[in-house]
Specification:
By secondary structure, the chain is of the alpha/beta class. The chain is built from eleven helices and 14 strands.
């Protein structure tokens, strides 16, 4: 799958499979191509080349069939704040042609699942950001979707709300046997996923189970803060062959137990703080890209808007 916005190559030959009933994460920084890919899968955007199948249906040739199997939670809020919690769910079910009796049953089931039953008749603008996200997840399942697409579902939420959202995602996967494709740039969120696809600058860098990614691409690192600018320069120059990343005061060096002992003996007096970190998904990303996950100067959302203005195309 490839996609350009003018001269910007947003997706550069992306290819992967998501297995049935998998919890599959696309991990990458803002600007990596995640949202562009999600918009193509949602049938809101056409790719320049390649093919995407959703439950066996081609998203470009069979968009209606693909949409009926999808439940979608966009990165940007999409609830009607003037309606109540129940009315938002009822409207969605009506749009998808869910019969009235079944619609009421599913609304009650979904509200119970995301713990919003007591808020059913409250106007949406009175909900917290975390509650609105939970409502959007419930809404995505009213039409009995087989596949749930979640684009940065926890962005902007506090730590407690993020934990609860992931609790609901895992519970949904287990209880409803659905397939979940989620995008995020929070590394700690994908540890419990079945599969993690690391994407950056429009390319897939690695795609495997978290344990396999750590085994094949992870590394033990020393994370340290030198006492002075001179110490910083001396350590990076002395160990340039082990330098993984240097950002501000902090230095990351690839390590093993023997090197850590030698390093402390040589530089211990010049270090303000030091920790030894075992292979992690963060070290996997560092190993593959040479940098940490960070915000890009221009987000994909900005690129999408710019493309819409250039091409006269509304992309949602």
């Amino acid at each position: 799958m490839s996609k350009r916005y003018g001269r910007t190559l947003a997706l550069d030959g992306v290819s992967f499979d998501v297995g049935q009933q998998q919890l599959f994460a696309l991990l990458g920084p803002n600007g990596s191509g995640k949202t562009t890919l999600m918009h193509i899968l949602c049938t809101l955007l056409r790719s320049d080349s390649g093919q995407a199948l959703v439950a066996g249906f081609d998203v470009m040739r069979q968009p209606l069939q693909a949409r009926r199997r999808l439940g979608i939670v966009f990165q940007e809020p999409s609830l009607d704040d003037r309606l109540s919690v129940r009315e938002n769910l009822d409207l969605h079910g009506l749009v998808y042609g869910v019969p009235r009796k079944l619609r009421r049953q599913r609304i009650d089931e979904m509200l119970a699942l995301v713990e919003l039953s007591e808020w059913a008749d409250k106007i949406c603008r009175t909900l917290s950001s975390g509650m609105k996200r939970r409502l959007e997840i419930a809404r995505a399942l009213i039409h009995d979707s087989e596949i749930l697409l979640l684009d940065e579902p926890t962005v902007g939420l506090d730590a407690q709300s993020r934990d609860r959202i992931w609790h609901y995602i895992r519970r949904l996967q287990g209880e409803r046997a659905i397939t979940v494709l989620v995008t995020t740039h929070y590394i700690e969120e994908v540890e419990a996923c079945d599969q993690v696809c690391i994407i950056d600058r429009g390319r897939v860098l690695a795609n495997d189970a978290p344990a396999a990614l750590k085994r094949d691409h992870g590394q033990q690192v020393l994370r340290l803060v030198p006492k002075s600018v001179a110490d910083h320069a001396a350590i990076t120059a002395r160990h340039v062959d082990r330098l993984v990343h240097a950002d501000g005061d902090e230095i990351l060096l690839s390590s093993d137990d023997a090197f850590a002992e030698r390093f402390l003996a040589e530089h211990g007096a010049n270090i303000r703080a030091l920790s030894i970190e075992v292979p992690s998904l963060e070290s996997v990303f560092l190993s593959l890209t040479g940098r940490t996950i960070r915000d890009e100067a221009a987000s994909e959302r900005d690129q999408t808007k710019a493309f819409g203005k250039i091409g006269g195309e509304h992309t949602g």
